[in-house]
Amino acid sequence: MTTDSTSGRSAETLFLALKEMRRARTRFALLSAAVGLLVFLILFQQSLLDGLVTQFIGAIRAQDAQVLVLSRDAKGDLEGSRVSLDDLATVGAVDGVSDFGRLNVGGYTISTDTSRADADPKLRLLDASVWGYDLGGLGGPKTLVDGVRPTQPNEILAPTDFEDKGLRLGSTVRIEPGDIELTIVGRTKDLVYGVRPALFMSWETVARAAAARNPDAAEIAPTAFVLQPGPGVSPKTLVERVNAAVPNVQALTRGDAADNAPVVASVSTTFSTIINLLRFVVLLTCGLFFLILTAQKTSTLTVLRAMGAKSSTLVEALLIQVVMVVVAGSVLACMLQALVSIPLKSVGVTLDFASALATTGVVLVLALVGTALGAIRRIVKIDPVAATGLQGASS
Amino acid sequence: MRIALRELRRRPGRFGVATAALAVLALLLLFLGGLLDGLTAGSTGAVRAQERDGFVLSTSARDSFFRSRVTPEVRARVEAVPGVSQVSGFGLTFGSAKIDGTDTDVGVAGYETGSSVLPSPPAPGEAYADERLEQAGVKVGGSVQLGPATPIKIVGFVKDTRYLQNSLLWVNLDTWRSTTRQIRPESTVGDEIVQALTFDVARGSNITNVTAAIDAATGGATSTLSSDDAVNATPGVASQNSVFTLIIVTTLLVAALVVSLFFAFLTLERVPIYGVLKAIGSSSRQLFLGVLVQSMVVSIIAFAIGLAVVAPLAISAPSGLPFALSANRIFITIGGLGSAAILGGLVSLRRVIKIDPAAAIGGGT
User: Fold this and answer.
1) Where are any strands of DSSP class E within B100-220?
2) DSSP H helical segments within chain B, as ranges?
């Protein structure tokens, strides 16, 4: 009996909410569009942030060393770091190091069979981040998507995400200038650094490329040392030991080297500020809309209250409308996000349903808070007795 | 229009929430715009400060100074191209210096020709420093040491000359070469070699023809850019611009929707009053103008609030935050917000026109 009356009341509430939405299609469509655009802006910026972060430091996460040692004055910027080879033995001798190696990271110009055939001369050359390590040692990618690891100086590893630029398994890459031809023997995902594809190759090959580009230059120096902690030693412990034992270097766990890279920190702060401001706009917009809506129909609501409708029924109808507006807006936002992800996939903009669901949840909570602060308070305050003083209910 | 303004004066609270929502959007627009301008200025200052008509880099450098290398032979060919005047060398190296006990990103820029921003190159071992370094604690007469390099004596400060957010020390080419050799041995260049050439276009010649002529004269070994192209070729500037512009345009769309939403409701609420006003002779045009005036006033107030919040940030932005609010950006933002307000107000037009005065007087709508 109780269940019947509860479900009857719920159906009544739902009917009330839907009826009003059907009658005022334009205004609810406008609000859904506004919420949709806001959710889209949030989704777009979140995915742009995730994509940019991967584009900036994907290769750091993808390489296999758990600890990286940079020069202290580089302040976490791998390309700005330069460590002395004289320190390699000292770092390698720190208690808890099971394996160590050297890494050189730098920006180079490359061409592929595909790029060289491009009609536009500007597109015949490509930017790449070149990572030199001792083949067979630390510093290479953790896993491969296809192919094998390089064993020869003319073999390299490339990312999987640049097939359209000619970075395919078995294809040839030329480092410019110098005509150093290399074959892609293996590929892995998210192998990008500084918004450029990262190519992993032997230390000797990088040295040859550097000399070909600038014959006046001295031999290349490591930008970082890479370390692996031994059994029972955590990366964090090893970091502390290296920082205590070797002056002028900064040891970082792989995660910290990626997450605390200067560009990542500043980009994350900026995007977080923008996203929080947008959330605040959601709260204000929804609060404003439902407050005005409630103000407009106060007399009708007063009559309904006088006829026996409970405040909770009216509030529930309002909450159903909030949920429906946010859901409709989120669906619109997902469609927009799917659309923009087509041209912007290369910078990491994608439609991630888990993130969309989480954002919808946050926006729903904010919309409910906004509504609660204005419209719900107003409904709860309605005095049914006031209906006797009304000249007529207006819609 | 008078009624519209009077309503705004007498019942400001009614417009409060819409103004608050728009103020947050205005704040967001100004913040995004200022950030974009700050990032662009901090990335491209070194190119703009030289005030040259064009830049010549090696083709394989893909418009990156750091990967470019121009030999004296190439320079001679560029100098011989008709329409090219005053060819100079340019080189750039990034490093780090301890300033007031803090590791600071500092670059060294070698140049040959001064401009209204840059005095003529200083003596060997001396530098003009970017003003940001003055804020960091560098003083005229003091010196800055990059890594193991010989300290460079500061002889003055220059404004807006940074590159990729790094403050630069402007030195002559020999000092740049020797400093590079000490801090970046792998980037060392030989005597007479530079990373890029800068040039002016002689009177009567045009930059497009001259850039093509230079690349033809060097047999495709160079990629010559106009000054504007060199600014846009700075790493990250083009993608930064497109991403921020997309976010700004979408934010303006949201602002237009907020305005339209608010005034659509307000118009709905006023239908009976508008009916009466129409019955006593007001035209739809007059009533709609009133809505537009209110939407514009709300937008202007919201913009003023946004500006008041952002202005302190523009005046004293923390050195780590690349933020620069220009007059141009302020005009663009107020123009955008004004357009959004007009667009939003237009949504109410149809409803205002449809109001039937007879029905309004009869008590129905």
Assistant:
1) 102-111, 126-130, 143-144, 152-158, 167-171, 196-201
2) 2-10, 16-49, 72-79, 131-136, 173-183, 207-217, 227-232, 237-279, 284-315, 327-346, 349-354, 357-361
Extract the tokens encoding A23. 């009658």
Q: Is A260 on the interface with B (CB under 8 A)?
A: no
Q: Output the DSSP codes for A179-203.
A: TEEEEEEEEETT-EETTEEEEEEEH
C-alpha dist (Å) from residue A323 to A281, A319, A354, A365, B141: 17, 6, 18, 9, 66
Task: State the best of A111, A292, A340, A373 to mutate against chain B, taking most chain B CBs within 10 Å.
Answer: A292
Q: What is the pLDDT of residues A208-257, one digit of tens each?
A: 999 998 888 878 889 999 999 999 999 999 999 999 999 889 999 999 99
Does a cis peptide bond (omega within 30 degrees of 0) precede residue A177? yes
pLDDT tens figures, B246-257: 788 878 887 887
In A169-228, the residues whose Cβ lies within 8 Å of chain B are 176-177, 195, 210, 213-221
| B365 pLDDT tier (thresholds 50, 70, 90) | very low
Contact between chains at A280 and B193 (C-beta distance less than 8 A): no
* DSSP letter, residue B196: E
- Taking phi first (over 0 means left), then psi (-120 to 50 degrees means alpha), and beta for anything else, what does residue B149 get? beta
Average pLDDT of span A339-357:
83
- A184-201 in b/e form (b: 16+ CB < 10 A) is bbbbbebbbbbbbbbbbb
**Interatomic CA distance for residues B93 and B95, integer angstroms:** 7
A254-A258-A262 Cα angle (round to 5) = 135
Edge to edge, what strands does the sheet with B222-226 contain? B143-144, B152-158, B126-130, B167-171, B102-111, B84-99, B196-201, B54-58, B222-226
Distance CA B315, CA B298 (A): 26
Tally of CB atoms within 10 A around B257:
23
Size of interface A-B (CB pairs under 8 A): 142
Burial of B21 (0-12, 13-18, 19+ CB in 10 A): buried
Contact between A277 and B189 using a beta-carbon 8 Å cutoff: no
A293 touches chain B (CB under 8 A): yes
**Does the CB of A347 have a partner CB in chain B at under 8 Å?**
yes
Enter the tokens of residue B17: 């929430």
ipTM: 0.71
- C-beta atoms of A195 and B268 within 8 A: no
Cβ–Cβ below 8 Å for A288 and B35: no
B67 reaches A (C-beta below 8 A): yes
Closest-CA residue in chain A for B61? Answer: A109
B140 near A CB under 8 A = no
Chain B nearest-CA distance from A2, in A, is: 40
DSSP B118: S
- What is the C-alpha separation between A225 and A82, in angstroms, rounded? 10
Higher pLDDT, B358 or B276: B276
